[in-house]
Design brief:
It is built from twelve helices and twelve strands. It has a seven-stranded mixed β-sheet with strand order 7-6-8-9-10-11-12, sandwiched between helices. It has a five-stranded parallel β-sheet with strand order 2-1-3-4-5, with helices on both faces.
């Protein structure tokens, strides 16, 4: 009888195991009630404001989803670590996020140099790497099965600027770029885009982080007197160069990339920022004809937050990612998430349609140009 009782107990236990939900931690970062994502980015240093704005937009959407019970009953937890835009620290953060915190995916990691270090680590660990805040082509070619981009590339931004200048008949174009992988890649792209139109740069200047470098670059550019100047630099470098260029009295047409935080630039430079044209990879947060913009503004207003391009991009990235989670189903795994993203070939994200596929891991190709006008506005 005792043996029979033990046999029954074992049978009941086995049946319970079969009827119970799948193992809580069968997939790294996925529990019965939560999904843990990781982020490494600048939470300190000159680029911190840009990264924090992006994260604030993502949080708006994740908070909304979590308030409704999450995706398939799982709330989304985003764990963020500061790398101060240091590639080596970013690599260390990713190792920690994957090996110690055991995140399911990496979301919205910030910057070109850091992402060049982070992506190989994520791919080797088979951890999805979604929507890095960078448009560098070096992160996109060749296509990595674990990496998905949301925004258009810097190449597309630069080509849009040069196409605009060509339409205006401008043939004298100078280029100033930061002395890092982001700047060097942008220079090569600009040279190629000009070459396709039978042009070469009138002048090229590079600078690093010292104020004196920006002064030297400004003198080189002003001395060549091009009609237009394309700045391939992040926010803090762009501000230093603009300040130095304005001090020379030279006033060319000025263009910058989406990595520039216009609102911060306006606060720092005031009227010196007037006239700068900035490439944008999303519609303006003031464009009410886009449903996803209206949603973003509604939740921003509820949270008493201002509107910005970086926050709007973070909001859209979170929107796309949660839709992929929904499509991946309750039995969530990295492979199911990747397949869900690749299946979003014509999904309307609220006025913008994604174009992911098995051969394309870049969701959008939207690029527009905006100008900082009088009254220091950029819309």
């Amino acid at each position: 009888m005792k043996a029979l009782r033990l046999l029954r107990i074992a049978a009941v236990a086995a049946l319970g195991a079969l009827l119970a939900p799948g193992p809580a931690f069968a997939q790294q970062g996925v529990a019965t009630d939560a999904i843990t994502l990781g982020h490494s980015g600048a939470l300190s240093g000159p680029l911190a404001e840009l990264n924090k704005e992006y994260l604030s937009g993502a949080k708006l959407h994740f908070d909304q989803i979590n308030s409704r019970g999450g995706i398939h009953g799982r709330r989304i937890r985003l764990l963020t670590l500061d790398d101060a835009y240091d590639p080596e620290l970013a690599a260390a953060n990713v190792r920690k996020l994957i090996e110690s915190h055991r995140v399911f995916a990496l979301f919205g990691c910030f910057g070109t140099g850091p992402s060049l270090k982070m992506i190989p680590l994520a791919s080797a660990a088979r951890v999805p790497f979604f929507a890095p805040y960078s448009g560098a082509d070096a992160l996109r070619q060749p296509t990595d099965p674990y990496v998905f981009h949301l925004r258009a590339s810097y190449s597309e931004e630069i080509d849009k600027i040069i196409s605009h200048l060509a339409t205006l008949g401008v043939r004298s174009v100078g280029i100033v770029h930061h002395a890092d992988p982001f700047g060097e890649a942008g220079l090569a792209t600009a040279v190629a885009a000009l070459s396709r139109r039978g042009l070469t740069p009138s002048v090229v200047a590079r600078f690093a982080d010292r104020e004196a470098d920006a002064d030297d670059a400004a003198r080189i550019i002003a001395g060549a007197n091009p009609a237009a100047v394309i700045m391939i630099a992040a926010h803090d470098n762009s501000a230093a160069f603009l300040r130095a260029l304005r001090s020379t009295g030279y006033r060319p047409m000025l263009f910058g990339l989406s990595i520039i935080n216009a609102e911060q630039l306006i606060r720092e430079l005031g009227d010196q920022a007037y006239g700068l044209v900035i490439a944008r990879v999303l519609p303006s947060p003031f464009r009410l004809d886009y449903p996803f913009v209206r949603d973003y503004r509604y939740f921003s207003d509820r949270a008493r937050l201002g509107y910005s391009y970086p926050a709007l991009e973070g909001y859209l990235a979170a929107t796309v990612f949660t839709e992929a989670l929904r499509r991946a189903g309750r039995e969530l795994s990295a492979d199911r998430l990747l397949a869900a993203l690749e299946g979003m070939t014509d999904w309307d994200a609220g006025g913008l349609k994604l174009r992911y596929s098995t051969h394309n891991h870049v969701g959008l190709d939207y690029v527009d140009l905006t100008v900082i006008g009088r009254g220091n506005t950029s819309r």
